[in-house]
Amino acid sequence: MKIAVASEKDMVTGHFGHCENFHIFEAQDAEIVASSSIPNPGHKPGFLPNYLNELGVNVIISGGMGGGAVDIFNEKGIQVVTGAKGQAKAAAEMFLQGMLKSSGAVCRDHSHGDPGAGCGK
Fold this sequence. Notes:
InterPro entries: Di-Nase_FeMo-co_biosynth, DiNase_FeMo-co_biosyn_sf, MTH1175_dom. This protein has three helices and eight strands. By secondary structure, the protein is an alpha/beta fold. The chain has a single domain, classed as Dinitrogenase iron-molybdenum cofactor biosynthesis domain (Nucleotidyltransferase, domain 5), CATH 3.30.420. The strands form two sheets. Strands 1, 2, 3, 4, 5 and 7 form a six-stranded mixed β-sheet that branches. A two-stranded parallel sheet has the order 6-8.
């Protein structure tokens, strides 16, 4: 299983599309066995869900995400978890332990005053 966490350095970002990087965690038997970080290649409508799908991602974790991205991930069979906060690796570990559930936070306003704040508007 591959889990992508939209991040600002090592922290979960408030909005998926505007993240600085994606932490990609590979897991087997609910344990992280490998990790890497890739820069966000750019925010264009519909691009990032398809990009992460091509990387083989099964789960995307973020603080918030736009409805269009959520729809594309759902079409690709990729599980979306929004409402996450804190360290990216800790969020992935919590997901693997069944302790991280999606809040359903969908971004409607892209003028975030606090880049560390979760969306959910």
